């Protein structure tokens, strides 16, 4: 009996140590920032970044602005989504690992502990910028189980959905004096392998975020 409870205690501790690598975020600051018109005026793409990371508050504000829940009762989000499938999963490649943004708990779930920033792109600036977002369409959420044929017309809406999230990121970055750039240059096959994606999960776009080198 004693042996059995030790076994369950060990399992509990292992479970919690994995859980402990997830990142909990402070509440987003929904009152700060520049005016919308100022942010639009300053929106631009950057291709050179310093090594400096984002603070937890900046990360929280960025992810919420991008694709957070803004109507809790309906679980609806800061970006529109065709048919409200909400099939775009937002992954975050950080120096400490790859994470999946969980909107319900506004937290980051660790997927693996590899620094995949370099693998998210083909241009040099992706390597040292604070983070790279990867927008993945989980077609399972749009009724396409693994094994069902998926063609371009199925993904058409996902490209639009991801682009709306990317524009939110642009506006947040302009507002917070950060830099970003949305990217189609992604070694998709290699990255999908490193991310451990299923056959019905498609990489749509990536977006580099960090402190611009001016
Ligand atoms: C769908 C999409 C994909 C893009 N892919 C890349 C890319 O792979 N690499 C890159 O350097 N810029 C990329 N860009 C950024 C554009 O080159 C950039 O938006 C354009 O030059 C206009 O500059 P601005 O964003 O500063 O207004 C992409 C933009 C969009 C909308």
Low-confidence stretches: 6-18
User: Strand count, sense and closure of the main sheet?
Assistant: 7 strands, antiparallel
**What is the end-to-end distance?**
64 Å
Please tell me what the overall shape is.
globular
CATH homologous group name: NADH Oxidase
Radius of gyration: 18 Å
Q: How many distinct domains?
A: 1
The topology string of helices and strands comes to: HEHHEEEEEEHEHE
Q: Which class best fits the helix and strand makeup?
A: alpha+beta
Q: Count the E strands.
A: 9
Mean pLDDT across the residues is 92
Helix content: 25-40%
Broad CATH class: Alpha Beta
CATH architecture: 3-Layer(aba) Sandwich
- CATH fold-level name: NADH Oxidase
What layout of secondary structure does this protein have?
Layout: H1 2-19, E1 23-24, H2 36-42, H3 56-67, E2 69-71, E3 76-77, E4 88-94, E5 97-102, E6 107-112, E7 131-138, H4 152-175, E8 179-183, H5 188-195, E9 201-210
Helix pairs in contact: 2-4, 3-4
The structure holds flavin mononucleotide.
